[in-house]
């Protein structure tokens, strides 16, 4: 889906950098082959930046949002630190048109060059600077198909009256809308001026307005240093409602009341998180509900989580996702994986923290259900990848690959399982003290796996003699000492499945007061082989096909495809056309592709649905459906 490559302009320094870069895969492979790496710093193979030479410390962004042309036009002013008397600043770009580059307050013209386009990485922008250069100004325009930007027409929104724009910068898509050093190991503060149509509101991962103004020009400030993947912008017919003294919800007016109800407990979540691991460092914690095409459940943009509307279940049953994104305010946003090979450090800690928040608010039994569901997903992922796959290691080797390939339940659930194992070993009190100190000691810093292991051994002496850290992190598949998580409430669910399988009518099952997690466990444990009559009985009793809970509906639709339950096909098509969350799309399309008839149906639905999906989802699904 990428545009045809433009004519490339090379500079001497860009060519020199490309020559150096060509040795990186071998160097990275060498370090990955070591049984127990000891390095505390790591080269990020997904950036052209050379931060040891010159590094960005502050971004001043000034852009205009043009819905008609589907572009951002403006200027990125970069305050830099020249650390080695370097004569060039190296930035990441992809799909950007660079109009000119200037230096300093006087905006003196300078030379620059765009390197050859590299798969996944885009193009290096090498800018000639002086030893005393403090500011570099890049005038540029985005491409209408910039991977990070999703432009929605009015019909793709809840209100149906105004267009909508949102960004998704993780993992390395910030470079498609801002010329920047796009590495999780490089942090900078930023300010922004954004001009939008007067009837719309702009919000960012920064201090935000809470209502529209008359000019359509909005000012933003982020005074805490963040990596580029946490840069975020959204523009649309957006309104705000507070739900606490430090928390609130942004959404389209048609969705705002429902969203305010759904997320009314955000302030309690924030208080629970602070009680566990220390003060919240970002001021406000607000949440923006995006249109359905958002490819993830949530994105932890500082001060303003972006969230999918698929968690608007009407009963606050799916708000563990909010706890997850809130937890990222510590694990990820505060202490950040240095490279995408260390992604588990972000997500493993966040899953663990999320479930501690849910336990604090709703009980251990409730959190145990989440642990069991997570373990199910982990085992399913290992089975899918294969137990000998390198992608089942916590420490990844993503050299030459899209870092998005590392977004799987390995990072999330295997990472969480390791932390559970460590907690079991040293005890919760000692473990909590370790985690709290970890966040405080490395606030606004990056962390890689080897540095973490060193810190872990120092703070918890002898831990390596009790937990095989090397097997957990560098080993493939599931470790021998995987924690045995159980749920008392799920035992009753499994009995209900057994009772139904042996003849008890569905309507007579003891399902009163089940949570959505219990229902999900029920659907996941239904027999692998069911008749149309059995599917129909369950559907009539529990109305799964018409469920307003996206988690339950997606799980049920998987059975519908597998068992060719035709009454659910209209709901299947509606779901796939209107929901852009990759977590749901990938398994459903995957199930359809298992039969010739299903593949035909998948291709027909995808032809309708593809324009509604974000680049992140499209890049995955295009590869699946072209096989």
Q: Could you give the order of strands across the largest sheet?
A: 5-4-8-2-1-11-13
CATH topology of the largest domain: Immunoglobulin-like
Strand pairing plus helix content: what structural class?
A: alpha+beta
Tally of individual domains: 4
Going by CATH, what is the homologous superfamily of the largest domain? tricorn interacting facor f3 domain
Mean pLDDT: 92
Q: Care to count the β-strands?
A: 21
Please indicate the percent range of residues in DSSP E strands (runs of 2 or more).
15-25%
CATH top level of the largest domain is: Mainly Beta
Number of helices: 19
Distance between the termini: 16 Å
Question: Which second-level CATH architecture of the largest domain applies?
Answer: Sandwich
Shape: globular
Task: Characterize the biggest β-sheet.
Answer: 7 strands, mixed
